[in-house]
Specification:
Layout: E1 27-28, H1 32-36, E2 39-44, H2 45-50, H3 55-68, H4 70-79, E3 84-91, E4 106-114, E5 119-123, E6 126-130, E7 133-136, H5 162-176, E8 198-201, E9 206-209, E10 217-220, H6 236-239, H7 254-265, E11 270-272, H8 274-277, H9 283-291, H10 293-298, E12 302-306, E13 331-334, E14 337-341, H11 356-364, E15 367-371, E16 376-380, E17 385-387, H12 415-427, H13 442-452, E18 456-457, E19 460-461, H14 465-468, E20 472-473, E21 478-479, E22 492-493, E23 496-497, E24 513-515, E25 518-521, E26 527-529, H15 540-544, E27 547-552, E28 557-562, H16 579-583, E29 595-610, E30 627-633, E31 639-646, H17 650-653, E32 656-666, E33 677-678, E34 683-684, E35 703-705, H18 707-716, E36 740-743, E37 748-750, E38 768-774, E39 784-791, H19 792-796, E40 800-806
Parallel strand pairs: 10-11, 10-12, 12-15
Antiparallel strand pairs: 1-4, 2-3, 3-4, 4-7, 5-6, 7-14, 8-9, 8-11, 13-14, 15-16, 16-17, 18-19, 20-23, 21-22, 24-32, 25-26, 25-29, 27-28, 29-30, 29-32, 29-40, 30-31, 31-39, 32-38, 33-34, 35-36, 36-37, 38-39
């Protein structure tokens, strides 16, 4: 750790830094204008790097090297030495707008914007660019008149301050009553089996059975590779002998050893770790523990998160000498202000947060103590937010941006949005064993089962099964483990989502999706959904089941509330039918995966032509590992819709006729832009009695090809192509021109539908069928190859009712 004395001489600063008033940098009013308007050019990257004696430049250099990595900075230095570095300001407290403290004089950080260097992280679908930051530290022994101004803390690189962590837990306990189960209303079917839970007794250094009503701490970590010591049938007696873990031949993985030390330092007795508390070669014991994994983490007093390293032998940084912290804090004192680099590392950007099993461990744990490579953080469900590099100067301070994926947010979103977001976040993560795809998500599904009032079948909600089938790939997505059905996201490898266009939201997705087929389980003939008509605001189902309908003017969202007491706290995107409740008594893990579907099937062509509704309207390179948004063509080669497929399957699908199954019918838009929208009642009209479309197509004067803008779009498309959208250069004449038209010669108008609006009208109520692209039959069973949308008039022109066995 590099520290300096109190006030520095002017010779210790370069000429640029001598003009900075450091005392004024680290506090302000918190008003947006106060920090957005602050900007100071510190110098060029070359100028900063050439300084050898300026204390502040040395701190800036150290901060940039640790944030961007030294090699990245040096590459920019060699290529773009004139790159400028700017200083900006902002409140340390992410919740500063909600401050209830008496003063508005709050602590600030300063960060450094470097034009040629950017670091980003993904949180809930958005890219957040982060700049390296410097904070001001406060002397813990000195009481200031306003201790909140500089509440940065010196982090000891050699060891953890256990008294600090105990203070966090005491504060949380006194505020949120930590000493009771996390969810007192959590009625687990396995609650009576808690006495059978194995734990590590850290005082005896062995495996024991958890005593009745005893509290325990859980460990969430990454195995990375197989562990040398695991609980098995042949070593259960040895591992249950007092002192066994202190013997060399029974040493667990480094991370587990460190976690045992953490539990001891915090004054608790019991630690739950999967490798040593589940009999790994006992399938019955393993399955029983997986079944109650949600309960294990939800009822833990605390979850220790090993957010450093990529395997179980990495350890918890700072707990023992074998696992050192990195990077370290560099401090300098200038004009009486002690400054240090801010540690960037947090659990959102770690390898741990990319693993499938850790997702449910995170969302189900009420309290998390995370050991990152550089420092420790603590968060609880009730709003506690502690960071080792900051003093908690006042209640309610938050040091990290809110990460939506950390919890299931029922307060702000309807239940299907919560489910869809959880699936999207979970499928981004990696699972070593494809057979664990559902197991590692089971705890989350159990939490969702109560508001959905029904079970989940291969990961899809039975009470909204028609919408659950509409998941789409958001990148390369290939057929994975065939032990899971093709109609479930669990049967595919790759990230999925429920918004058809990535920028869209899920607003009213359920409200404007109506099943057009009946679906049963083939083994037991259980109904999962059936063909129906769109509901209206005075639907009998709503009246009979005491649902109240609401409309959010700000978001244009339709949602429902239930009178049933246990459902009153949830928003519903549609009233629940009785199907889910009936199916819950019959569905089981032993049921087969084949669906028996009675619905409409039609045949259409696929070529290499991409949909005009896609941002890239051309062909993918052969073998490119991305996704294709292909145009679906009728017998006259008109674009009738689009289908999303994995690009690797394009060679076997192109230039052939394929069968498409109509799953459900939907509107073109999900809000008041749609012609099906009834403004007075704030609902969607039924398609019965809707005006008929022009069978001969629309008048060419109204909609005609607008060649120049489309050609220009193709020419400019190369600059917009992402990694998943490589294209082949082809003449514009071969491209689909269904995406852009000129209306009444008043300028270009984009066709926002997936179909060619010259031939298929968007002035049709509910103009789209959500369709599945079906594979060739094998033993009478077909699989899902892709999902898309087709205009209802085109589909009805050559469809017929069929029975489909979908596996």
């Amino acid at each position: 750790m590099d520290t300096s004395g109190s006030n520095v001489l002017s010779d210790d600063l370069c000429e640029r830094c001598r003009n900075i008033c450091f005392r004024s940098l680290f506090h302000g009013s918190g008003e947006h204008d106060d920090y957005f308007t602050k900007e100071t050019k510190l110098g060029t990257l070359q100028e900063i790097w050439s300084e050898t004696s300026c204390l502040f430049c040395q701190l800036v250099k150290y901060t940039l090297e640790n944030h961007f990595k030294k090699n990245s900075v040096e590459v920019v230095l060699l290529k773009e030495a004139a790159t400028a570095i700017f200083m900006y300001w902002g409140p340390l407290d992410e919740a500063h707008d909600d401050l209830k403290i008496s003063t508005r004089d709050i602590p600030y950080y300063i960060d450094f914007g470097v034009y040629s260097l950017e670091r980003s992280t993904k949180t809930d679908g958005s890219t957040i660019y982060s700049n390296p930051q410097v904070i001001a530290l406060r002397d813990s022994d000195r009481m200031e008149s306003n201790p909140s101004i500089h509440f940065g803390r010196t982090v000891n690189s050699g060891k953890v301050d256990w008294s600090m962590i105990n203070d966090w837990l005491v504060s949380c306990s006194s505020t949120h009553i930590v000493n009771r189960p996390a969810n007192s209303n959590h009625n687990s079917p396995h609650q009576e089996d808690q006495s059978k839970l194995r734990v590590i007794d850290v005082s005896k250094a062995c495996i024991v059975t958890l005593p009745p009503k005893a509290r325990y701490i859980a460990l969430s970590y990454v195995w990375g590779k197989d562990q040398a010591l695991k609980l098995k049938k042949n070593n259960e007696t040895s591992l249950s002998t007092a002192g066994c873990f202190d013997r060399k031949e029974f040493h667990p993985s480094r991370t587990i050893i460190d976690a045992i030390q953490v539990v001891r330092h915090l004054g608790y007795l019991y630690l739950w770790v999967d490798a040593l508390c589940i009999v790994q070669d006992d399938s019955e014991n393993k399955q029983a523990n997986i079944e109650r994994m949600g309960q294990i983490y939800n009822e833990a007093l605390l979850t220790i998160v090993a957010a450093a390293g990529t395997h179980a032998d990495h350890g918890l940084p700072g707990v023992s000498p074998e696992c050192q912290r990195s990077p370290r804090q560099k401090t300098v004192t200038i004009q009486g202000i002690t400054m240090a680099n801010r540690f960037y590392s947090n659990i959102n950007s770690t390898y741990w947060n990319k693993r499938g099993w850790t997702y449910q461990e995170r969302i189900l744990s009420p309290r998390i103590l995370a050991f990152t490579p550089s420092h420790i953080t603590y968060n609880c469900d009730e709003g506690c937010d502690h960071d080792e590099q900051f003093y908690a100067a006042y209640d309610g301070a938050r040091f990290t941006p809110f990460y939506n994926a950390s919890k299931l947010d029922f307060e702000s979103n309807n239940i299907f949005d919560v489910y869809a977001f959880a699936v999207s976040e979970y499928t981004k993560r990696s699972i070593n064993d494809p057979m664990d795809k559902i197991k590692a998500f089971k705890g989350a599904l159990e939490l969702l089962q109560k508001p959905f009032k029904g079970p989940f079948f291969f990961g899809l909600p039975v009470s909204m099964f028609d919408v659950g089938l509409l998941w789409i790939p958001v990148g390369p997505c290939s057929r994975g483990n065939t032990s899971f059905p093709s109609w479930s996201w669990a049967g595919w490898e790759g990230a999925v989502a429920y918004d058809y266009i990535e920028a869209d939201t899920l607003t009213n997705l359920c409200e404007c999706t109506v099943s057009q087929c009946s679906i049963k389980t083939s083994d037991t003939d259980i109904d999962l959904c059936y063909s129906s008509m769109p509901r209206t605001h005075d639907d009998t189902l709503i009246k009979d089941q005491n649902w109240t309908r609401h409309f959010d003017l700000e978001t244009c969202e339709i949602y429902y509330r239930a009178s049933e007491e246990e459902l009153q706290s949830y928003r519903y995107p549609r009233p629940l039918s009785a199907i889910g409740r009936e199916a819950s008594h019959h569905l089981s893990k032993d049921l087969g995966q084949i669906l028996q579907i009675r619905g409409r099937v039609a045949k259409f062509h696929l070529t290499r032509q991409h949909s005009g509704a896609s941002s890239i309207a051309s062909s993918c390179r052969s073998g490119h590992n991305g996704q294709c948004n292909l145009a679906i063509l009728d017998s006259k080669n008109r674009t009738v819709g689009r289908v999303l497929i994995d690009a690797r399957t394009l060679p076997e699908l192109q230039n052939r006729e394929h069968r498409f199954l109509a799953l459900s019918r939907s509107t073109l838009y999900s809000n008041d832009e749609d012609i099906s929208w009834e403004e007075d009642s704030k609902t969607f009209r039924s398609w019965v009695g809707a005006p008929a479309s022009d069978e001969d197509g629309l008048h060419k004067v109204e909609y005609e090809e607008y060649h120049r803008p489309f050609a220009r779009r193709i020419a400019d498309s190369s600059s917009e192509i992402g990694d998943g959208d490589s294209v082949l250069p082809e003449p514009a004449a071969k491209m689909d021109r269904a995406s852009i038209f000129r209306k009444d010669y008043n300028g270009p108008q984009e066709n926002r539908g997936p179909f060619d609006a010259r031939y298929f009208s968007n002035k049709v109520f509910w103009p789209l069928f959500n369709v599945l692209l079906l594979s060739e039959e094998k033993n009478g069973v077909v699989e899902r190859c892709g999902i898309g949308q087709i205009h209802v008039d085109a589909f009805r022109a050559n469809d017929k009712e069929e029975k489909v066995l979908l596996g």
